């Protein structure tokens, strides 16, 4: 058991907080009341905001090693150089790259990620997930169309074999879940898109892919098929409530309606969309149509960022300036998308809310900073003026991963030193 004493519990609908004690037993919130007594360890949380764990709906963790050397490139140059760096990594380097990305996510209060990874050194990748200790849904980014000379194409049968291998080795093992993960229609034949969806449906898995990220790629699909990318995925029969679509920028109004009707989930990655000049997705219109939307940090090679609170702030601002409407994507809606709605998109029905009986994934956030001095407005100030750097402690199933700003199970200095050695080698490779 663990007792969190005197934390500020958020109400996202009203934007207010209430002070309470929270008792955790067997990895779940067992009791919440103004005052509780229990014979167990106590965390004094007076003045700390208790946030539910956040869900990152679209990530590429190994790209933590290419934060920096791919800045200020157009998408064509960026993709070629990113893959050049990625394919140069050894097994040990893959491990440290993924571990670094996971630890950065935890540092910013993320307790669940949805990862598009790659097959080389997959055992090391999964070991990094397990060592990090957060919830991971993951799959191999499958492709059978070469978009450039760095793309490694894989036949449909081999893509299915890899997905089957992951499923049997790791699905449901601890905090791991596997998924079917085609890269996206510009990089995948209709046969691969359909085959992986059938694989996912037969096993009850998520289906995670890119959608309409680049204008040129979306126009290419329309030239090939006579349909927009979302229309094409609907035609292929792969859109449903278990489908997560990263980016979703170049959509027609008809496609926005189609996504809402399908109950698929859009993963909004504003930093990447802005930094790579992909475009501004119609998130306000998607939400108004009833579509499901969450946030993703994408890979640091493009977003340079793992602070999911910052992603939500940028996502909100981007929609306000797109629509010239300051009321769209308000703070309360952003928090719901980051937490319970994001977790539900990943298939969790009892994660993402601080409520009795729910799994105890949460963070404790410092509020005594210059950015968030007005505690009457702590939720809006944290989102619009604060930072994930204010997160003090992070727990998954009631177990601490980060405590008082320090990782519980990892020697961060050693990890950062090893990653610096790897990034220096990558810089030489790209020179």
TrEMBL record:
Residues 50-399 form the Amidohydrolase-related domain. Keywords: Hydrolase. InterPro entries: Amidohydro-rel, Metal-dep_hydrolase_composite, Metal_Hydrolase, MTA/SAH_deaminase. SUPFAM superfamilies: Composite domain of metallo-dependent hydrolases, Metallo-dependent hydrolases. It holds the Pfam family Amidohydro_1. Gene3D superfamilies: Metal-dependent hydrolases (3.20.20.140), Urease, subunit C, domain 1 (2.30.40.10). This is Amidohydrolase. It comes from Faecousia intestinalis.
């Amino acid at each position: 058991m663990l007792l969190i004493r005197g934390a500020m519990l958020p109400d996202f609908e009203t934007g207010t907080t209430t002070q309470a004690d929270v008792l955790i037993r067997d990895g779940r919130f067992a009791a919440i009341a103004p005052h509780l007594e229990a014979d167990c360890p106590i965390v004094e949380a007076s003045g700390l905001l208790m946030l539910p764990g956040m869900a990152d709906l679209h990530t590429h963790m190994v790209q933590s090693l290419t934060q920096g050397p791919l800045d200020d490139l157009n998408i064509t140059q960026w993709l070629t150089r990113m893959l050049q760096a990625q394919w140069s990594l050894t097994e040990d380097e893959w491990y440290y790259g993924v571990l670094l990305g996971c630890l950065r996510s935890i540092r910013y209060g993320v307790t669940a990620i949805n990862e598009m990874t790659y097959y080389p050194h997959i055992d090391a990748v999964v070991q990094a997930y397990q060592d990090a200790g957060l919830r991971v849904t993951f799959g191999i980014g499958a492709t059978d169309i070469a978009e450039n000379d760095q793309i490694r194409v894989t036949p449909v049968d081999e893509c299915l074999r890899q997905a089957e291998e992951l499923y049997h080795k790791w699905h449901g093992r601890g905090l791991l879940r596997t998924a079917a993960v085609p890269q996206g229609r510009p990089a995948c034949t209709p046969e691969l898109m359909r085959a992986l969806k059938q694989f996912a449906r037969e096993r009850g898995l998520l289906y995670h892919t890119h959608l309409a990220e680049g204008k040129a790629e979306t126009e290419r699909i329309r030239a090939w098929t006579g349909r927009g990318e979302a229309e094409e995925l609907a035609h292929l029969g792969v859109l449903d409530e278990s489908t997560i679509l990263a980016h979703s920028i170049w959509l027609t109004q008809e496609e926005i309606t189609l996504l809402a009707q399908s109950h698929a989930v859009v993963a909004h990655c504003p930093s990447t969309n802005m930094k790579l000049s992909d475009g501004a997705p119609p998130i306000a219109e998607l939400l108004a149509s009833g579509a499901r939307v969450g946030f993703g940090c994408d890979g640091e090679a493009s977003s340079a960022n793992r602070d999911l609170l910052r992603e939500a702030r940028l996502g909100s601002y981007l929609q306000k300036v797109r629509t010239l409407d300051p009321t769209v994507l308000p703070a309360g809606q952003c928090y719901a998308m980051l937490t319970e709605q994001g977790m539900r998109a990943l298939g969790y029905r009892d994660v993402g809310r601080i409520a009795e009986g729910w799994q105890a994934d949460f963070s404790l956030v410092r509020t005594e900073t210059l950015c968030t001095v007005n505690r009457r407005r702590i939720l809006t100030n944290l989102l619009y003026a604060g930072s994930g750097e204010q997160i003090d402690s992070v727990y998954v199933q009631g177990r601490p991963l980060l405590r008082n700003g320090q990782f519980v199970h990892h020697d961060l200095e050693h990890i950062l030193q090893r990653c610096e050695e790897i990034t220096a080698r990558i810089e030489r490779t790209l020179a």
